[in-house]
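Fold Annotation — chain and its backbone
Next Lines — sequence and tokenised fold

***
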Amino acid sequence: MYYIKDAKIRRMLKYDGAPCAEVGVLPGAVGDSALLVYIVEDNREEGYEIIRILTNDADTATDWYDNNMHDAFVDVTSSAFPGSPVMSPEEERDKFQRELLIFGDLKKQLGVRFQEYS
């Protein structure tokens, strides 16, 4: 399971024509990668849905986080949640999404940013 140390909306953009929030997520566990999580509005569940997850394995001490001129950014949307003996991959993904949305006031910020972006 991925533990969240910090999460902030980095920017709003269009993804497949839909408004999308790019959220930077810093790991709470040593060895985990920083993530870029792409979230769209959704009428199901919590009102939002994760549609894409990228990792950034570049060393933040020597490389800018936004430097995508190399292969530091890897799409892990389909492999980020492998499952465990007690949780299926879908359950892990749902748990991560719930924990991300309740982190700080991220859900409130998403509401404001999506309203402003419309």
Notes: Helices lie at 89-101, 106-117. The mean pLDDT is 86.
